[in-house]
Design a protein that fits this description.
Order of helices and strands: HHHHHHHHHHHHHHHHHHHHHHHHH
Number of strands: 0
Helix content: over 70%
Strand content: under 5%
Oligomer: single chain
């Protein structure tokens, strides 16, 4: 009865849903299956080579498999039997150092939003460990509210030892230690839960995420065994009560698991549910905002980005996305404000300069749409300062000049863009248009043909070429150019109108 109870809880506990449904959880599944297979062979005194090989594969699947090693120690303390496992662990460590340059992940490589403990001191991580233990055990005992995201600031980092969550976590650990030392029946099961859980507490090195349900997949084995032991004891004393308790747990777990699995139907469903279950997670709002933006629901996307930024105001990417969403919703002034805010946040690294460059262009486009040409020009010039070699900023600056009727300056800007990149098609098209309007038809024709050579599917180039050819009286060639533009883009009204006028 104990084994059956443990197996049912492990299979049906709702917290297992993320590891099974989410693609990111496949590493946890594979590591668990290989580590457990290795342990079962170890328990049967099978080939040391097979045991070590499976354990090494488990480690290569996910480093958390290393925390299954205490299970082997608990089962057998014969040093010679542990040598193959130690060899597998050493081989894994060597491969990891060779490939990644170290055993852990640097806190600088993990975003603060994903894990606020990433760059924290060991003392802060140690203080947070009981809080995380309290949350993990809470999910095991009462998985009523589950979430795909617990990043900043859904689980606030404790500010001191007086935080009630720290005391509760320590109390739970003391209770587990008491059970493990006083009860031989429960010792292995309790330690099989607690020891693998240590991997998820950021004590040795920070993980890429602060807290995740999928990280409970390996510790869940110990939790299930503990439950199985409890049901077995209860069944030995009062079988009817044992059956009732098991039945209630199994039915409740299955019902909650069924409900939770529906959350993973598609991205929007999952992210909406995540916002409900983790309302203080900035990332959950950003994820839903990005999904809504992809579906062109710009007004609601803006709202989601705003909600996330209230929790974490200094997120450059979210401010950029908010600006783009506001643009899509027609809120040009709001878009300018978001882009202006994003420009204040970018630090001075090469990657960050590129991000600032993109922000400057977005800011400028917002200004141009609002016909705030002074703002647009300032933004594009800021972009040029950040990366003078990128032709797009020069091209946008030329468009702003052209909208203001400053044709000479527009032409110079397009030529500067082409000096940076002679094959930049947007600048070629804009320069060809200016030359065509200035009566330089042969020069314009040459530029349009060059653009077509670089971008044979450019309907703008064919339409512009048709106009130039028509002005030169080359009617049949112009017709062919317009027809080609329409074939590429059937909805191109300008080319159809040009073709009608020509005929």
């Amino acid at each position: 009865m104990g084994s059956l109870s443990a197996a049912l809880l492990f299979a049906l506990h709702p917290v297992q849903s993320e590891a099974v449904n989410a693609v990111v959880g496949r590493a946890d599944l594979l590591a668990f299956a290989l580590a457990l297979s290795s342990f079962l062979l170890f328990a049967e005194s099978a080939s040391p080579f097979a045991i070590a090989a499976l354990f090494l594969l488990a480690l290569l699947s996910k480093e958390s498999a290393a925390f299954a090693l205490p299970l082997f120690l608990l089962h057998s303390r014969q040093a010679k039997r542990l040598v193959p496992l130690a060899a597998a662990l050493a081989a894994y460590a060597g491969v990891r150092v060779a490939v990644l340059g170290g055993l852990g992940v640097s806190g600088r490589e993990i975003g603060f939003l994903d894990n606020p403990l990433a760059d924290a001191s060991l003392a802060t991580r140690a203080l947070a460990a009981p809080v995380l233990i309290f949350r993990y055990i809470g999910l095991i005992l009462w998985p009523r509210v589950l979430s795909a995201d617990y990043s900043f600031d859904q689980i606030p980092v404790p500010e001191g030892i007086l935080d009630a969550r720290v005391g509760l976590g320590i109390a739970l650990l003391v209770g587990a230690a008491f059970i493990a030392t006083r009860s031989g029946k429960f010792r292995f099961a309790v330690l099989a839960f607690v020891l693998p859980l240590l991997c998820s507490l950021h004590l040795l090195f920070p993980l890429g995420t602060l807290f995740a349900e999928r990280l409970l997949y390996l510790p869940m084995l110990g939790a299930a065994l503990t439950f199985g032991r409890g049901i077995e004891n209860l069944f030995e004393r009062k079988s009817a009560i044992g059956l009732v308790v098991l039945g209630l747990v199994v039915v409740a777990s299955a019902a909650q698991l069924w409900s939770r699995n529906l959350d993973w139907r598609d991205n929007e469903t999952l992210f909406r549910r995540t916002v409900e279950t983790a309302p203080e997670s900035a990332r959950s709002h950003f994820l839903l905002g990005a999904e809504l933006f992809e579906k062109k629901a710009f007004v609601e996307a803006s709202k989601r980005f705003e909600d996330g930024l209230r929790i974490y105001p200094n997120h450059f990417g979210a401010l950029m996305s908010l600006g783009e969403a506001r643009l899509g919703a027609g809120d040009l002034r709001g878009a300018e404000e978001a882009f202006r805010s994003s420009l204040r946040l970018v630090p001075s690294s090469a990657e960050a300069r590129r991000a600032a460059f993109e922000a400057a262009l977005a800011y400028g486009r917002a200004g141009a749409r609002a016909e705030d040409f002074a703002t647009a020009e300032d933004a594009f010039r800021r972009g040029i300062e950040l990366d003078e070699s990128d032709p797009s900023a020069w091209n946008y600056l030329g468009l702003v000049h052209e909208q203001q009727g400053r044709v000479t300056e527009a032409r110079e800007a397009y030529e500067r863009a082409l000096a940076s990149d002679a094959d930049y098609v947007p600048a070629l098209l804009n320069l060809a248009s200016i030359r065509s309007n200035s009566g330089e038809l042969h020069a314009a024709e040459e530029i349009y043909r060059r653009a077509i050579g670089l971008a044979p599917d450019s309907y703008e180039a064919y339409n512009g070429l048709g106009i130039v050819l028509a002005r030169q009286g080359r009617r049949s060639e112009a017709v062919a150019a317009f027809e080609k533009a329409i074939a590429i883009e059937p909805g191109l009204g300008a080319a159809r109108e040009n073709l009608r006028n020509l005929r």
